[in-house]
Specification:
It is a single chain. By secondary structure, the chain is an alpha/beta fold. It folds into two domains: 76 residues; 53 residues, no CATH class. The strands form two sheets. A four-stranded parallel β-sheet has the order 2-1-3-4, covered by helices on one side. The chain has a two-stranded parallel ribbon with strand order 5-6. Strand 1, helix 1 and strand 2 form a beta-alpha-beta unit. The longest helix is centred in the N-terminal third of the chain and has 15 residues.
């Protein structure tokens, strides 16, 4: 009998991507469902699942998770990881380089803009959903990336 894995993310595109990755790994063993806060499918009480994999920006707190995920459910956070060849490219960026790190949301950008062990210059997290953005302009974080 297949297990059920529920993937919850803020953005429906992220939820679909994460669900696709899990599906490709466990298609013979698990049915994967995806939910998004932004499209409304992750609001209210979610149907039960054997595992809830929840992105860090989906819900704002453990209390909010408890409002949507059935009590006594097994949950885990979705973590960002980098492929080895991506890290090698990042290691090649010259010291002192200024770069923009673009991700879908502020939480995702801020949490993943400097992979552990990557030296180099300064990186500024930005995301397309931030309006105004101070000196960073539309999509900026207000930091001076110039």
């Amino acid at each position: 009998m297949k297990k059920t894995i529920a993937v919850v993310a803020l953005d429906p595109r992220a939820a679909a991507f994460y669900a696709g990755q899990i599906e490709s790994l466990f298609h013979d063993y698990a049915e994967v469902r995806s939910y998004s806060v932004r499209d409304g499918s992750a609001t209210g009480k979610l149907p039960g699942a054997d595992l809830f994999a929840i992105s860090t920006d989906a819900y704002g707190s453990a209390e909010e998770v408890a409002r949507h995920v059935p009590i006594d459910s097994v949950t885990m956070g979705i973590e960002v990881s980098y492929k080895w060849d991506t890290l090698e490219e990042l290691w090649g960026i010259p010291e002192g380089t200024k770069a923009l790190f673009v991700n879908m949301t502020e939480t995702m950008g801020a949490g993943s803009h400097r992979p552990a062990g990557v030296p180099g210059g300064q990186s500024y997290p930005v995301h397309p959903l931030l309006s105004g953005g101070g000196s960073g302009g539309a999509g900026g974080t207000g930091g001076d990336a110039g």
